[in-house]
Write a structure and sequence with these properties.
With 149 residues, this protein is mainly alpha-helical. It contains 8 helices and 2 strands; from the N terminus they run H-H-H-H-H-H-E-H-H-E. The longest helix is centred in the middle third of the chain and has 20 residues. The N and C termini lie far apart (64 Å).
Length: 149
Amino acid sequence: MDLTTKNWVFDDLDDLDDLDYEFARDHVAEPEPPDLAHLAACDPAERTRLVDAYVRGELARVLRVPPDTIDTVGRPMNSLGIGSINGLELQRRMEAVLRVDVNLNRLLRANSAAELIDCLAGQLGPADSLHKHDGRGDHLVAHDVLGTT
């Protein structure tokens, strides 16, 4: 490396106030898991709002963006940046927190995060909810509690 190149590279580095700037800005808070008993007891609109906040928080954590910047309606999950690795992470975290079975293939192919939110909100409602099914088939979310089948 010649002297001009060295000066140019190191001059640019000197301009940085904090080398950890990108890492500090990249940190996203851990999402607050919703209370399952409260979800089952509240009305559908409130349940959807709470599930939306939780899913946005999980997506924000995985994608390292602010939750309010996530387009939950207009973009498919893969267009948001959800691939197989972070999709698997989302699946496992949501299953553990919400105690539902999330179909990874359907999660990755979902038309939008809103589709996931609607399925989760329906599954986490009262036991007699029309959204609940036998846990079989090509559904995004099954109501069967993990470890009980």
